[in-house]
Amino acid sequence: MKLVNGYSVIRLFGYTKQPNGFIRQRRTKFLSGAKGFTLIELLLYMGLVAIFLTATVYFAWDVVLGNVKAGVHQEVQENLRSAAHRIQFEIRNADSINTVSPILSLTAPSPNNPTEFRLSNGTLEIKQGSGSWTPITSSAVEVTSLTFTDLTDTSSENIRFILTIRHRNPSGRSEWEKEATIESSAQIR
After folding, report:
1. How confident is residue 46, by pLDDT bands cut at 50, 70 and 90?
2. CB neighbours of 68 closer than 8 A, spacing ≥ 6?
3. 150 is a domain residue
4. 21 lies in a domain?
5. How far is CA 174 from CA 20, 69, 102, in A?
6. What is the CA radius of gyration of the chain?
7. Is residue 170 situated within a structural domain?
8. What stretch of H or E contains 97?
C-alpha cells in the first residue's frame, strides 16, 4: 500500500486501484527490455537440436556400418582372388595330375613334388614337396566348399575348381555376412 496525494493506492499485478474506486492499468510494459527466451521458444529450439543430433547419429552409424561392410566384402574378395590365382598357378606349372578328390595332388617340378591342396577346418591349405601344410586363406574367412573336377581329354589335362569363401561371423551380425564363389579352370602346360 502506498500513499499518493494523501490517498492509499494498491498496486497489484500491474493494475492500480485509485482512491475513487476505479482500477486502471499502469502504462509500463511487462518485461520491457528483458533478455531471454519464452518457454515455447526454448521447447522449439530443444526440439530442433534433438532432430539434428538424431540425424547426425544415424548418419555416423551408417558411415561406420558401411565401412565395416566394405571391409568384410574386401576381405572375402581378396581371399577368393588370391586362392584362385594360387590354384591356377600351381596347376599351370604342374607336370601332371595325380589325384583330384578329395585332395588335389599334382606332380610338380622338384623340390615341390607333389603339390597338394586340401580343405581343413574351413581353411584352404597347400603342401609342396615334403613341407608342411600351409594355409592359403586368412583366419578371417572360412572356405565352405572346394570341388575339383578332372576335365582331362586326349589332347590336354584340365582341372575345374569351384571355391566358396565366406566371412567368419561369430556374432551373427548382418554387417559381417558375405559369401562369394568362383568357378574356374586351368590347363597343365
Report:
1. very high
2. 175, 176
3. yes
4. no
5. 83, 9, 32
6. 40
7. yes
8. strand 96-99
Q: Give pLDDT tens digits for 66-77.
A: 888 888 889 999
CA-to-CA distance for 90 and 112, rounded, in angstroms?
10
Residue 142: strand pairing partners:
166
* Plot region of 111 (φ>0 → left; ψ -120 to 50 → alpha; else → beta): alpha
Sequence letter at residue 90: E
Element spanning 76, H or E = helix 39-92
Domain count, the chain: 1
* Spatial separation of the C-alpha atoms in residues 102 and 120, rounded to whole Å: 11
Q: Is the separation of the CB atoms in 10 and 17 below 8 Å? A: yes
Q: How confident is the model at residue 18 (pLDDT cuts 50, 70, 90)?
A: low
Q: How high is the pLDDT of residue 14?
A: 54
Residue 168 lies in a domain: yes
Boundaries of domain holding 141: 65-187
Return d(Cα 115, Cα 110) in angstroms, integer. 10
Q: Tell me: pLDDT of 136 over 90.
A: yes
Residue 124, SS3?
strand
Calculate the average pLDDT of the chain.
83
